[in-house]
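Please decode residue identities from the backbone states below.
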């Protein structure tokens, strides 16, 4: 008998690479290591990158334990070829395979992607729900690839978000802004941290390379403003190179901006490969116009990387501006200045990043999450 159904637009293994997938996997790793008997009580619902697996229950191995998994939508791994909204396709898949998703009254539905709330509540109005907000839901329209300029869709989405917030039994948030927004609709809002599995190795002796190695990790979309990072590298007088990890709709355009051999695109990488890039890299650069609390920043800090970033979302709660991080306005000139600043104090900033990363140990964070889920399930 299942007790918890988890919804996410991922395959819970390696796609799509990003902080949300890492966060969910870290929760499941915690369950596998510290709540072993609970593994068989969880059903994962998500997507598959193999069309033959669609609608068929399979097994996912996480932390050495097995979890049941039901994929309800197929997604091509080539993010540049995506032609339809994943959120809309996922919602359709949830309705198509609704009979395969258990909805007994004892079950708690743990939702990491908001459209799943529609299917759960329409099919089972009295179902208990917990929602994890990985970034402000009210800012999501700005990050839409599809319908971004459709005012009707935007207005309807905002109405839906308010309805969801009012009717959820529990909401997890990562930042103070989301907490202050949501508390107006629901008093059962709990602030938690994103979590990482801290590396066993010691990176306190991390040294700058020559040339200096900048790293970007994330989806290649307009809201990430990667073009300004490229421009900074192309115009920086210091010897600097940039590795861009990730894929997305902006890749072809971004590749066309590169005029030297200073910039390398790796495409999407698996978690272990991303880890290796962070070990090899010197400075992480983020340049988004909107974020939650990016997992990428937390992971980079755990490998001793100082951070260059815009101050959006909950980033100011993750880093110490003027300490292990330099704030910019997103323009290439300020990014160049930030590179020079970090060069002059690299060892100190490495130590500060390593120190801050300890607050995000997956054991501590997910013990709280699990406790809260159990509380509302009783």
């Amino acid at each position: 008998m299942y007790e918890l159904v988890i919804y996410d637009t991922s395959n819970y293994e390696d796609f799509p690479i990003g902080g949300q997938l890492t966060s969910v996997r870290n929760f499941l790793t915690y369950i596998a290591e510290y709540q072993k008997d609970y593994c068989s009580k969880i059903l994962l619902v998500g997507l598959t990158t193999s069309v033959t697996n669609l609608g068929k229950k399979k097994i996912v191995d996480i932390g050495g334990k097995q979890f049941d998994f039901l994929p309800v939508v197929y997604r091509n791994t080539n993010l540049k070829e995506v032609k339809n909204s994943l959120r809309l396709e996922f919602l359709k898949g949830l309705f198509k395979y609704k009979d395969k998703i258990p909805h007994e009254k004892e079950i708690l539905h743990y939702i990491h992607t908001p459209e799943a709330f529609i299917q759960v509540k329409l099919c089972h109005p009295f179902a208990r729900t917990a929602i994890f907000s990985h970034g402000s839901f009210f800012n999501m329209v700005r990050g839409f690839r599809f319908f971004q300029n459709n005012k009707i869709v935007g207005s309807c989405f905002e109405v839906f978000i308010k309805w969801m917030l009012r009717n959820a039994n529990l909401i997890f948030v990562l930042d103070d802004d989301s907490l202050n927004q949501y508390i107006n609709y629901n008093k059962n809002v709990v602030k938690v941290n994103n979590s990482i599995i801290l590396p066993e190795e010691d990176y306190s002796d991390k040294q700058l390379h020559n040339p200096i190695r900048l790293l970007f990790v994330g989806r290649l979309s307009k809201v990430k403003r990667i073009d300004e990072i490229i421009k900074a590298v192309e115009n920086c007088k210091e010897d600097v190179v940039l590795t861009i990890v990730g894929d997305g709709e902006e890749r072809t355009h971004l590749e066309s901006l590169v005029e030297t051999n200073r910039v390398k695109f790796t495409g999407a990488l698996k978690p272990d490969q991303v880890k290796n890039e962070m070990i090899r890299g010197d400075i992480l650069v983020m340049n988004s116009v909107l974020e939650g609390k990016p997992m990428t920043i937390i992971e980079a800090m755990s490998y001793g990387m100082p951070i260059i970033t815009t101050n959006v979302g909950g980033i100011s709660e993750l880093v110490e501006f003027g300490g292990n991080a330099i704030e910019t306005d997103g323009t290439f000139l300020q990014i160049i200045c930030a590179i020079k600043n970090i060069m002059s104090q690299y060892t100190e900033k490495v130590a500060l990043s390593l120190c801050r990363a300890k607050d995000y140990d997956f054991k501590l964070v997910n013990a709280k999450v699990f406790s809260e889920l159990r509380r509302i399930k009783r």
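Observation: DSSP finds 13 helices and 14 strands in the chain.
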